[in-house]
Amino acid sequence: MSSSNIILTKTDKTVNGTIQLTGSKSECNRALVIEALSGGRVKVKNLSDAADTVTLAGILNSTQLAVGSNAVAEPATVNIGPAGTAMRFLTAYFALQPGEVLLTGTERMKQRPIGILVDALRKLGANITYAEKDGFPPLQISGGFEQQTNQISIKGDISSQYITALLLIAAKLPQGLELHIEGELTSRPYVEMTLAMLKQAGIQHTWQGNMISIANQEFSETSLPVEPDWSASSYWYAIAALADEAELFLPGLTSYSLQGDSVITEIMANFGITSQFKDGGVHLKKEPKPIQRKIFDMKECPDLAQTVIVVCAALGHEATFTGLETLKIKETDRVKALQNELGKMGVKLIEKGLVYKLDCSEKFIPESMFINTYEDHRMAMAFAPLALVIPQVEVEDAMVVEKSYPAFWQDLEKVGFGPLTP
Ligand SMILES: O=C(O)C1=C[C@@H](OP(=O)(O)O)[C@@H](O)[C@H](O)C1
Ligand SMILES: C=C(OP(=O)(O)O)C(=O)O
Predict the structure, then answer these.
(1) What is the rounded CA–CA span in Å between residue 162 and residue 87?
(2) Is the ipTM of this complex over 0.95?
(3) Are 237 and 263 in contact (CB under 8 A)?
(4) How close is the Cα of 244 to the center of ligand 2, in Å?
(5) What ligand is nearest to the CA atom of residue 191?
(6) Hey, which of 76, 127, 225, 254 has its CA 20 to 30 A from 234?
(7) Fold category of 25-225 in CATH
(8) pLDDT for 63
(9) Are the C-beta atoms of residues 223 and 197 closer than 8 Å to each other?
């Protein structure tokens, strides 16, 4: 598929089908770093085809080979593209590995803050300098260091990815790590996912109050299976919510998941979507009912925010949203991007301090709508379901979905969204 726009139409408002989702990029990215740190004792199972994961796997493979052949004497430039999670995890990983690396990414990556993580790693003893702007990638990392302390304090309210990055390397630190989380912890389920996966890989921890401790210890010989991506499932829940009738089967998803985004089942129950776990997956069914819930807190599931806000806008449901603070430093400023695009159907997302209110009083359904995507996969995927309520939806830069869900458009085509005109 070319990197051009795509046009979606869906005249028939019924959606039926089976969609096999790719693996969770969050789980995969953790599993890959754990595999690399374990020296191959831990093996990843069901690698995702998300571009961020493929990029990370390629980098870890090539840099491990380079270390083996002593070829890292020359500083290597490592370009992580738009993958924020991988950027943060690799910063900690390369700080530990011997060798010189210039770690960089897209122009947007150079605007995504990393100072909190760099400060923490420097306190541990790591040698990291900023190649351009203080506090932001690219980073010059001179890997391998003598550990200065095992006590680190870190702010918890900007990104949980900094915390995960430190936890992933903690067991390899000679003195282990005692991580004190300052203030509120955002995206908490992602930290829980990290600790659960480390545990599967044989790494024990304690978490008491604001303190997470991991001693120096060995990884076990084991495999880490990766579940399908619950964040990706959210677009199917949105499609079901906007369809007249929907019956969908998503194989491989189970009621117990390491992914906090599995909370989409509870969120979408408010929109009449039932989730039944059987046949080795989840069955979604639409059973129309009035929407009751008025307040949605997205702090623990920020990647679902766009999906849920677009569904509310399309249904004219004037809900209130909290926990959107971190959206401004993701692939784009997602709050601004949502405000711009919802504005094209007369819906406003009004910021009042930390609370956002959806105002649908001037909402209208245009004949066609052009969706700008701001190099953000979730803008493309969250707005695509609008083709069920707007006769024609054109989505800019269709390839953007590759970051986490490369088969998204093909999957839409399977259930009758079309013609998909590249
Ligand atoms: O650790 C992870 O895999 C992720 C953590 C979250 O980021 P923040 O902790 O920055 O909110 C989430 O938005 C991102 O897509 C994936
Ligand atoms: C925020 C996201 O990813 P990352 O931070 O890894 O770029 C995302 O996938 O929504």
Answers:
(1) 10
(2) yes
(3) no
(4) 31
(5) 1
(6) 225
(7) UDP-n-acetylglucosamine1-carboxyvinyl-transferase; Chain (3.65.10)
(8) 82
(9) no
Catalytic choice (303, 376, 397, 411): 303
- Which class for 391: exposed (0-12), middle (13-18), buried (19 or more C-beta within 10 A)? middle
Report the percentage of the chain scoring pLDDT > 70: 96
Residue 15 pLDDT > 80, yes or no?
yes
- For residue 227, pLDDT over 70 is answered with yes
CA distance linking residue 227 with residue 396, whole number of Å: 29
Write the CA distances from 108 to 128, 137, 359, integer angstroms: 20, 10, 30
Q: The whole model's pTM is what?
A: 0.96
From the CA of 158, give the closest atom in ligand 1.
Answer: 10
Which ligand lies nearest to the CA atom of residue 164 in the structure?
A: 1
Question: Ligand 2 center to residue 325 CA distance, Å?
Answer: 14
Residue 2 has pLDDT above 50, yes or no: no
* Number of neighbouring beta carbons within 10 Å of residue 410: 11
| For the chain, domain boundaries | 6-23+227-414, 25-225
Nearest protein CA to atom 5 of ligand 2, as residue? 84
- From the CB of 261, is ligand 1 less than 6 Å away? no
Atom of ligand 2 nearest to the CA of 159: 5
Q: Do 6-23+227-414 and 25-225 agree at the fold level?
A: yes
**Which ligand 2 atom lies nearest to the CA of residue 86?**
6
- Given a contact cutoff of 8 angstroms between Cβ atoms, the answer to whether 165 and 173 are in contact is no
6-23+227-414: CATH homologous superfamily?
Answer: Enolpyruvate transferase domain (3.65.10.10)
| Token pair of 401 as six digits | 């979905």
